[in-house]
Design a protein that fits this description.
7-stranded mixed β-sheet, 5-stranded mixed β-sheet, 12 helices
């Protein structure tokens, strides 16, 4: 299969079109702007729709309308824009409407800066809007995964009738790598629940308002059952050198790549370290971490935020092992040498504790 060299942001758009997406509504923001630019160029060529909305609030509500018709639809933004979309995302989850949202994260809070960060974790992974809902979240570590996970995101969105995020830091969005794509576009048939404006679909309604308390509770139980099913069937992660690892590194996105290099070098020095890279941030690989806690001596989370991923690792390990932490924020990324020195300091401290 012939590969094409492009940015991660551009790969998202081409993969979306090949996955049958025909509607893009968005508002450009660094470091996600190339997504809107590429969508503006490519969607009309395929008979699709591109609209640059007047705001992120407008864009996410346009997604609501498009998704209601059964069309595969998407948007993209970064931290401040995703914050503005939260109410609409909650409406989408409440109406059980599938869509894909790409979040190419930047430094925060507030306007922050345009450097890569991972501070959007809580607002994306935990369901940042109001109410009891979740979004499925995929975290690529390469341009190829930007394409592959975008394709998967549309399938998961339809399977669970729910918004799905592709959450990538600015490094992954901006870097250029060779990527291979599926050969043919897939145009799924409109689902039975869609509002098509025909006699057959006249009774279809998309709505997140439920005034009856008992019905609202039953509906939330329905959502919870759907999320539990996703936790059983959709958890994805990558493992590196975990069979005998005494120290387990955990990181996602660009840090997953850095941690692979750290593991490789540490192993040449006889240090028993491995890597667990979550690919789905929700569903989170809790069971795998629980199993590793029975084998490894400790865990170390490396992330470009203030401990948001670390909190989920701590919950998964449930006090069975210590969870150490290395953080860079503000648009900074831990270097390979910085992480390797951190790993050696942890292993040295363990050795001293046994003296």
């Amino acid at each position: 299969m012939r590969k094409q060299r492009m940015k991660g942001n551009e790969a998202i758009v081409k993969a979306a079109i090949l996955a049958g997406c025909r509607a893009f509504y968005g508002y450009p923001i660094t470091p996600a702007s190339e997504i809107a630019e590429s969508a503006a160029e490519l969607f009309p060529r395929t008979g699709g729709v591109f609209v640059q909305a007047e705001s992120e609030v407008a864009a996410i509500n346009m997604i609501y309308g498009a998704a209601s018709t059964g069309v595969r639809a998407m948007t993209a933004s970064s931290g401040p824009g995703i914050s503005l979309m939260q109410e609409g995302i909650s409406y989408l989850a409440g109406a059980e409407l599938p869509c894909v949202i790409a979040d190419i994260t930047r430094g925060g809070p507030g306007l922050g800066n345009i450097g890569a960060e991972q501070g959007d974790y809580h607002q994306v992974v935990k369901g940042g809007g109001h109410g009891n809902y979740r979004t499925l979240v995929l975290a690529p570590d390469s341009v190829q995964e930007m394409a592959d996970l975008t394709t998967l995101a549309f399938d998961l969105a339809d399977r669970y009738r729910n918004p799905v995020f592709v959450l990538a830091d600015g490094f992954i969005g901006q870097m250029m790598e060779p990527v291979a794509f599926a050969q043919k576009a897939r145009l799924p048939e409109p689902p039975a629940w869609a509002v098509q404006g025909t006699a057959a679909t006249r009774g279809n309604v998309t709505n997140s308002l439920q005034l009856d308390f008992e019905k609202m509770e039953a509906f939330q139980h329905h959502l919870e059952a759907k999320y539990r099913r996703a936790e059983q069937e959709e958890t994805r992660f990558e493992e590196v050198a975990l069979d005998d690892a005494e120290l387990v590194l955990v990181g996602y996105g660009i840090l997953g790549r850095i941690l692979k290099a750290v593991v490789a070098e540490a192993r040449t020095e006889g240090i028993k370290v491995g890597l667990l890279r979550p690919i789905t941030l929700y569903p989170f690989p809790t069971r795998r971490l629980e199993a590793l806690a029975r084998q490894a001596h400790r865990f170390a989370v490396v992330e470009m935020s203030n401990g948001q991923l670390r909190d989920d690792v701590r919950l998964a390990v449930n006090g069975a092992r210590p969870v150490e932490f290395l953080s860079r924020v503000g648009g900074n990324v831990p270097s390979h040498h910085e992480v390797l020195a951190f790993v050696k300091s942890l292993m040295h401290a363990k050795e001293l504790a046994h003296v």
